[in-house]
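Incident review: delayed structure delivery

Summary: a single-chain prediction request sat in the queue longer than the usual turnaround. Root cause was a stuck worker, restarted by the on-call engineer. No data loss occurred. The affected request and its eventual output are reproduced below so the record is complete for anyone auditing the incident later.

Affected input:
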Amino acid sequence: MKTKAIEIANSNREIERLNAIISEQASKIDSLSNVTEGNKSQMEDYKAQVQSLQAQLSEMQERAITAEDLSSQWQNKSFNLQLAITDLENQLKTANNTDGIVPAE
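Output delivered after worker restart:
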């Protein structure tokens, strides 16, 4: 009888020890699960930031293309105006020379 009581007491202590280990492991699992959820949330935030930056990059590239186009148009118009000014100056010189007037330089 005494041996049975000792065996039962030992078994109860072993059950308590194993229950404590189970509880500790369950706590660790919950903690790791929370960390994983936090990482998932952080990953989603990073994905959203990347998408936002990609959209901004695309917009900036479009603006750069537009700016280059406008710059090219401006250069062409400026060149054409310079040609027109030079042509008018030449016409003026020619007109002055045919009138016998020497242009002042």
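Verification: The chain has one helix and no strands.
Action items: add queue-age alerting; document worker restart procedure.
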